[in-house]
Amino acid sequence: xxxxxxxxxSVAAIVPAAGSGTRFxxxxxxxxxxxxxxxxxxxxxxxxxxxxxxxxxxxxxxxxDWLWRLVKEYEITKVKRxxxxxxxxxxxxxxxxxxxxxxPDIVVIHDGARPLFRSAMIEGPILxxxxxxxxxxxxxxxxxxxxxxxxxxxxVDLTVKSTLERSLLWIAxxxxxxxxxxxxxxxxxxxxxxxxxxxxxxxxxxxxGVVRMxxxxxxxxxxxxxxxxxxxxxxxxxxxx
Length: 241
Fold this sequence. Notes:
The protein is α/β, with parallel strands linked by helices and 241 residues long. It has a single domain, classed as Spore Coat Polysaccharide Biosynthesis Protein SpsA, Chain A. 31% of the residues lie in helices and 22% in strands. It has helices at 38-47, 64-73, 89-98, 120-131, 180-193, 200-206, 226-237, and strands at residues 11-16, 32-33, 36-37, 52-59, 83-84, 106-109, 138-144, 150-152, 160-163, 170-179, 211-215. The strands form 3 sheets. A 7-stranded mixed beta sheet has the order 5-4-1-6-10-7-11, sandwiched between helices. A hairpin with a 2-residue loop joins strand 2 and strand 3. The protein is globular and about 55 Å long.
């Protein structure tokens, strides 16, 4: 896998926002967080990044009109197109990449349900990717695990098979950042094979790409349940240094 590196790369962001919100008990992306919808926080943070030139949110058909109203209300000028969600998140990401108005050098993928990330989680990883001059193909924001992780023999009697080495384990978050040429190749090959990965970087890894972790923040939570909204409000009031 090869990636072309330019001194001033073009960067586009894909925002998967087509989930059903089953665990939340409703559409979490449109739930209010500090007087603004969760998704609006996410889009505004991407809008404020000087490196990103285009944002493509991906949503369900029945939410497209609402999303256009949100884009207008919160003056998200970098959104020119909205892509239609697919059967699974990976399909939605692929649809978003194919909907880009121009082919960028770098693609940032960030979950719509992670409204608490900071601009440094985009700019720092992009600079690290470019600095490596093609030796790595993607960067994943994440944090080291704090707990001991057990592997079970099965989910019936719950007996422990092994204990993993904690110092080597990280929790993957988003943004996840890749060279466009690497990402689109991985998405195309996975689509042809009918293969689905647990996250975008796993696809790149599967087809020979080299991915590096980049230290993010424990504050960068994903809104999954209503309790997460309460946690998110606390983080807004008392952000980590």
